[in-house]
Design goal:
Length: 259
DNA sequence: ATGCCGGGTCCTACCCGA
């Protein structure tokens, strides 16, 4: 395994953010970039734009909502296009698992859990249970593993600005946080916190209420690393400058470097 | 307490996000 740069970005519509992503790829040159909330089906995904920059695309699309993809400048193989363990008829496009250079890399758009009342929250918790199981299975096989994406979880109270979320929000509820801790206890390392143990390291700022100007952000985009990859962690940080662009996504990209 | 903004679509009022 060589040095690897793996990134994640919730783009809030790839059709609205095509130019932002292309410019960022050229500037930062990740080996793999996982995208969330592409909000389209595969035929509408601007794959040619990224191919011209040397990136191959794999798309798990859905009309209007959700949708994930991965762009790679190194060869990769798709292993799963949905989260193992979910019902067969679950049509929400939120998961892609690939292998690249001996590493298993999973990109997720974890359910928000605030809509559709307790039923929506239960869907989120079940999704997290299935993800924890998948992680435990892969760790039991000693697979070098990174799970990255929009987790829709602020792990601790240090991970959201005062007043940016209600204490009962699905992103911070104890049941949500307990399931993220299960993944940590299984052996995964929160890469951003391994590099920056304390203080705000936000990855999202709401479009509303001047959240960016007030730095009223959330840390909800994460990368979890298996023990072997955690030992090789070089850097892990959001690219805050992207929030300054014209018509930005409400999330910024997060870059992880493995040495 | 609610809307704020900004995507999406049954094209335009409404759903969803976090």
């Amino acid at each position: 395994m060589r040095r690897m740069k793996i990134a994640t970005w919730n783009v809030n519509s790839i059709r609205q953010r095509e130019r932002h992503v292309a410019a960022w790829l050229e500037r930062r040159q990740p080996d793999l970039l996982f995208l969330q909330e592409i909000k389209c089906e595969a035929p509408a995904f601007p794959a040619m734009t990224f191919q011209a920059l040397g990136y191959t695309a794999e798309i798990v699309g859905q009309k209007s909502y959700n949708g994930v993809a991965v762009l790679g400048r190194i060869p990769f193989t798709v292993i799963h296009r949905s989260l193992p363990g979910l019902p067969e008829d679950d049509a929400q496009a939120r998961y892609i698992e690939v292998q690249a250079d001996g590493i298993t890399a999973i990109g997720i758009y974890l359910p928000n859990g605030n809509s559709r009342g307790e039923e929506g929250f239960a869907y989120k918790l079940n999704w997290m249970d299935r993800l924890a199981e998948r992680i435990e299975t892969l760790l039991a096989n000693d697979t070098p593993l990174i799970v990255t994406g929009d987790f829709n979880v602020a792990p601790t109270d240090e991970d959201y600005a005062k007043g940016a979320l209600s204490p009962t929000d699905a992103l911070v509820r104890s049941e949500t946080r307990a399931r993220l801790r299960r993944m940590i206890w299984a052996g995964m390392t929160d890469a951003i916190r391994a590099v920056t143990p304390e203080g705000p390291v936000y990855t999202f700022w709401d479009y509303q209420a001047a959240a960016w100007e007030r730095n009223a952000g959330l840390r909800i985009d994460h990368a979890l690393l298996s023990p072997g990859l955690a030992e090789r962690l070089v850097s892990a940080a959001p690219d805050r400058m992207e929030r300054e662009q014209q018509q930005p996504s409400d999330h910024v990209p997060v870059m992880i470097e493995i040495g």
